[in-house]
């Protein structure tokens, strides 16, 4: 672990403040690491993924002995990941590695607080590079739209992990506004048709080797006029196009995940404007006044205290009978 | 006039911006994300993969764009800015939530007194020069007294009276005071947050402890070991005694604490053998005495035979 530095001058202090944890976080920086051997396929795929991630991307050009899933050397691999994360203020990694057993493997690593949160390994089966398609490309730094198609992305834990990983990768930054004319490209993630054994209740029992393929495609968008406010969208393939298979993975530690999912407390103003969920029976009217609705239970009118008068006490017959008895 | 063709073409155009699916698409506008929960169609997937993927992506993107264009919009120079809502399914953070800073002494005081924070401008109006000047820093107003070319000297002033030096000393004293207060705030913040273990300090203590136990772990308990140059003598824990004169209160408290300690189960100084029933009578001894050393079983038999004998006599 890096030593915490006490700022000695204003420049260092500014740099440290920029790295300090914030309530609303900046975009995550990704580091692209090459393993001991990377083939041409992996190199090109990593280059394209990096082109999509720019400007929040750092490339490590040298080879590194890093095998995060290998039990024998995982601790050294993870400690180097943590070191790089602290050194570069990065919280995402893509590790490319080609071996005989797992050709063209990409490992996505997500960090929390400088420690590894979860990992995901995919194998590249087929890839088309950005340069292979002679089509218009998106501007670097523009936010992509993301599209996930398949019911597995809402049901199967492995695919849900892939979804959140890719989301953190390209769209993790929480933004308050988006320029509508700046939406230039879309990253579409889709699956092969779901095999029948995944539709049964115990989907986890199925072998992980036969999970359906994942297709990642990127398209640039064209907005055509439709006669309404909403434009009609047409897509042009941009590249990269990847066909992936899911291999090894490491789930997030539940305790660490709980820490990572903590949200800042909502401000009073935001709650009133309807951000939080605790906004029942409250509304702000046109004058900006907060109006509430109160629900009162049904009133029991028999217990209502009215003015006490002799004539109203009990039934008349009852009183008559009482009087006759005493006489 | 036949307008059906115009209407049809209009309807076609309009159709292309609405997406009909069996399950509605889930749009998370904060992350510019759309999820299509419909199962993949096997036929079109096998038929033409690229075409199938592109049409899927187009439908999803169209749904996302439609919902984005319906969000409230702010105008700006770069084009319309859609205001995004809060995320539906939040993603894990990259770093932990920032811890709230402990308030400074002034902030505590201001909160207690209800003093509002007022932002002070860095610039100040200079009447003489008729312009805005820095309050401090380059050509700062706080050095005006030191730098003006003529200064009034009071009547009967000392011969070494230097108004420039006095002003400068005052300013330096203010700076020093502020720095001292700042240090105090930092120290207070650190002591309040020292409840959490600080790894470096913990490690230092750990090393000291290991070293001291290693030094006395030789056969002579460290007595005849070679001393290194500059090695300090090991310091043990000094015994501490209470002072002889104490108030009645503290003495009473100490005594009660000692009594309760003696009484408590966990640290009982004398443990009694546990025996069932009344503790004032030693049952085993009593039985032995009554049965004249024959034991409880014999005594029981004897009692039973006596009873039989008694009842027979009565008849």
Would you kindly provide a written description of the structure presented here, covering whatever features stand out?
Chain A: This is Ribosome production factor 2 homolog. Chain A: Keywords: Nucleus. Chain A: It is found in: Nucleus, Nucleolus. Chain A has 327 residues and is an alpha+beta fold. Chain A has a domain at 26-172 and 181-196 and 208-248: 3-Layer(aba) Sandwich (Rossmann fold), CATH 3.40.50.10480. Chain A contains 8 helices and 13 strands. In chain A, strands 1, 2, 3, 4, 5, 6, 8, 9, 10 and 11 form a 10-stranded mixed sheet that branches. Chain A has a two-stranded antiparallel sheet with strand order 12-13. The longest helix of chain A is centred in the N-terminal third of the chain and has 15 residues, at 74-88. The mean pLDDT of chain A is 86. Chain B is mainly alpha-helical and 315 residues long. Chain B is 45% helix and 6% strand. Chain B has helices at 4-15, 42-47, 49-69, 105-113, 144-147, 163-192, 199-215, 248-263, 283-290, 296-314, and strands spanning 26-28, 33-36, 73-74, 81-83, 123-126, 131-134. β6 (145-149) of chain A pairs parallel with β2 (33-36) of chain B, so a sheet runs across the interface.
What is the top-level CATH class of the domain at 26-172 and 181-196 and 208-248 in chain A? Alpha Beta
Helix content of chain B: 40-55%
For the termini of chain A, the CA-CA separation is 101 Å
- Number-wise, the strands of chain A total 13
Percent of residues in beta strands of chain A: 25-35%
Radius of gyration of chain A: 31 Å
Give me the oligomer status: heterodimer
Strand content of chain B: 5-15%
What structural class do the secondary elements of chain A suggest? alpha+beta
Biggest beta sheet attributes of chain B:
2 strands, antiparallel
Biggest beta-sheet profile of chain A: 10 strands, mixed
CATH-defined fold name of the domain at 26-172 and 181-196 and 208-248 in chain A: Rossmann fold
Fourth-level CATH superfamily of the domain at 26-172 and 181-196 and 208-248 in chain A: Brix domain
Which stretches of chain A of 5+ consecutive residues score pLDDT under 50?
none
Most extensive interface = A-B, 71 and 58 residues
Low-confidence stretches of chain B: none
CATH architecture heading of the domain at 26-172 and 181-196 and 208-248 in chain A: 3-Layer(aba) Sandwich
Residue-averaged pLDDT of chain A: 86
InterPro entries (chain A): Brix, Rpf2
Main location (chain A): nucleus
GO biological process, one term (chain A): ribosomal large subunit assembly
Pfam families (chain A): Brix (PF04427)
